[in-house]
Amino acid sequence: MTSAPSLDRDAVIAALDRVQDPELHASIVRLGMVKDVVVDGADIRLTIELTTPACPLKETIEADVRGALGALDGVGTVTLDWGANVRATSPREGQKPVEGVRNIIAVASNKGGVGKSTIATNIAVALARSGASVGLIDADITGPNQPTMFGLQAGLQAGASDGLRPIERYGVRVVSIGFLLPKGTPAIWRGPMIGSAVRQLLHDVPWGELDYLIIDLPPGTSDASMSMAQDAPITGVVIVSSPQNVSVEDAMKAVAMFEKLDVPVFGMIENLSYFIAPDTGTRYDIFGHGGAEKAAEELGIDFLGAIPIEPAVREGADNGVPVVHGAPGSESAKAIERIAKNVAARISVLQRMGG
After folding, report:
1. 8 Å CB contact between 52 and 19
2. For residues 198 and 202, what is the distance between their CA atoms, to the nearest angstrom?
3. Measured between alpha carbons, how far is residue 347 from residues 44, 47, 100, 105, 207 in Å?
4. In what helix (H) or strand (E) does residue 335 lie, and over which residues does it extend?
5. Phi then psi dihedrals of residue 162, to 5 deg
6. What Cα–Cα distance (Å) separates residue 266 from each residue in 55, 99, 132, 171, 344?
7. Where are the domains of the chain?
8. How far apart are CA 185 and CA 163, in angstroms?
9. Cα separation of 126 and 344, whole Å?
10. How many DSSP H helices and E strands does the chain contain?
11. Neighbours of 355 (CB within 10 A)
12. What is the pLDDT of residues 151-203, one digit of tens each?
């Protein structure tokens, strides 16, 4: 009795060459995503190297790969391993790279009270949960909230001889001026001092190797935003708005500012978008609905998603347990995770186009 012939490795590669990355619209073989192909008789083992561990279309790629290989004659077991290689943003003239940091994502709003810090926190945690290495800068120098949102004591590094150092919580390396200020202590600084502080947070903190550094910017078109955009290679910015007209108007001004600073705008998020009554299931548009989506369409930028009003979001922020960690099954957590993956995917596309 003769054994079945072994699969031809060239045929395996040819089959994989017909699989396209759904966002980059090119063969995964030609994009260099296929690694370590081993053909052992009828069995195949390979690694797919994604451009981000937060790839939103990983399941689609896996289904396409298994479908392509399953169509070959005599295929046995297909074992698929995953890797990720996040490419770095190249600095423009006059910008100084942040050592070890591949990509910087700014989270901004032009109006306070829209949940920007909550969104920044949860995007960072969502990316970390996907397997990415993530840091977060609390750049709201005069109103630092990240210690509270991560359940860290205000002033915990006050008096430290080695200055500010990242503290890891929920997989995110966090730095905040609030680590130096005891609770209730105001930071009364003029604009140039704020710009200088942001530069120090970027360049004087030992971040280590990071795929993504999230910057929680203060509200408004301030020195912090301008200093950051001019000084460091910002990959892109996410604009947070609530549905109210005044918030949307301010968000549109923020978009215009970043476009003038030549910083790519990934898109707009509508936070506090709607409320679903848990007892009746009735939906209430407390602050209106759809304003941010309409503004994004008008500006020609992406609408990244709507996040509902849920008690779990507020409870998580107050108790230092971000909702994507503490209540991952909630609608708000799922919406934020989708947004985080979409932002990571946008970065991958930008890097590939730039490279």
Report:
1. no
2. 6
3. 31, 22, 17, 9, 20
4. helix 331-354
5. -100, 15
6. 16, 23, 19, 24, 10
7. 9-84, 101-354
8. 18
9. 11
10. 11, 13
11. 8
12. 998 888 887 777 789 999 999 999 998 888 777 666 666 666 677 788 888 88
Strand partners, 80: 46
CATH code, 9-84: 3.30.300.130
Is the domain defined by 101-354 classed in CATH 3.40.50.300? yes
Helices (H), 109-266: 116-129, 146-149, 191-203, 223-231, 245-260
Indicate if the pLDDT at residue 325 is higher than 90: yes
Tokens of 130: 């996907």
Nearest residue to 215 via CA among 137, 112, 110: 137
Query: Is residue 225 over pLDDT 90?
Result: no
Radius of gyration of the chain (CA): 23
Q: What length does the chain have? A: 355
Please state the rounded mean pLDDT for residues 244-272. Answer: 88
- Which pLDDT band, with edges at 50, 70 and 90, does 131 fall under? very high
- pTM > 0.85: yes
Residue given tokens 């949860």 in the structure block:
122
